Amino acid sequence: MQITWIAPGESLPDPALAWGPDAPVPGLLAAGGELGVERLLEAYGNAIFPWFSDNQPILWWSPDPRMVLEVARFQLHRSLRKTLEKFRRQDGCEVRINHDFGAVIRACAAAPRAGQSGTWIVPDMVEAYIGLHQAGHAHSVETWIDGRLAGGLYCVAIGRAVFGESMFARQPDASKIALAALVSFCRRHAMPMIDCQQNTTHLASLGAREMPRSAFISHVTRARKQQGPAWHFDPLYWDELLLARPSPLT
């Protein structure tokens, strides 16, 4: 099978041209190009994302199906609920958004991953997403405990379309707290879905499920045209999770 190579400034291919489930690497769409802000906005706005390792060209992906977390279906397990309730009322515990994006993405790059000896968040990716953050389209959700960054995640947002990227934890449950905060934020601001890119058991346990790429593209097309919210976290947003009735997995 051949891969489409793109030159800097050349448009990315139609996501429908990505390699299918029987290909050696399902979801691979193209290689090459660059990682500037405009390129990343083009990619995410068309349900495409970059993912590559050191010593590889930039690789562009659009898997089918797509793993997504519909925030209304987030599974707030009893243990996490207790953790959030304690976190919310404890002095020195807070969620911050975009307080230190650079620290968060570098911590995600350094976090060990089961079954992986390296990271896909290579220096070029760090630089690119810091640029996207400075342009207002990449955000960090941060768990702070006693004045220290304990964990967090970063994501991309175009309008009301949200794309989860990576998370890390330096203390138990710190990344889960950040994810729960992002879900609360999205619920409050009528942002119905967080892209998770690919299927994992952990994400499925939290309520994420696979969606046909065509349906995901339709969602992104609508959501990216809507006015996005101001990215800051109010502790009142916890009510979106802690006061809501549990949503069954269906």
From TrEMBL:
<dbReference type="InterPro" id="IPR004616">
    <property type="entry name" value="Leu/Phe-tRNA_Trfase"/>
</dbReference>
<keyword id="KW-0012">Acyltransferase</keyword>
<keyword id="KW-0808">Transferase</keyword>
<dbReference type="InterPro" id="IPR042203">
    <property type="entry name" value="Leu/Phe-tRNA_Trfase_C"/>
</dbReference>
<dbReference type="GO" id="GO:0008914">
    <property type="term" value="F:leucyl-tRNA--protein transferase activity"/>
</dbReference>
<comment type="similarity">
    <text>Belongs to the L/F-transferase family.</text>
</comment>
<dbReference type="InterPro" id="IPR042221">
    <property type="entry name" value="Leu/Phe-tRNA_Trfase_N"/>
</dbReference>
<dbReference type="Pfam" id="PF03588">
    <property type="entry name" value="Leu_Phe_trans"/>
</dbReference>
<keyword id="KW-0963">Cytoplasm</keyword>
<dbReference type="InterPro" id="IPR016181">
    <property type="entry name" value="Acyl_CoA_acyltransferase"/>
</dbReference>
<comment type="function">
    <text>Functions in the N-end rule pathway of protein degradation where it conjugates Leu, Phe and, less efficiently, Met from aminoacyl-tRNAs to the N-termini of proteins containing an N-terminal arginine or lysine.</text>
</comment>
<protein>
    <recommendedName>
        <fullName>Leucyl/phenylalanyl-tRNA--protein transferase</fullName>
        <ecNumber>2.3.2.6</ecNumber>
    </recommendedName>
</protein>
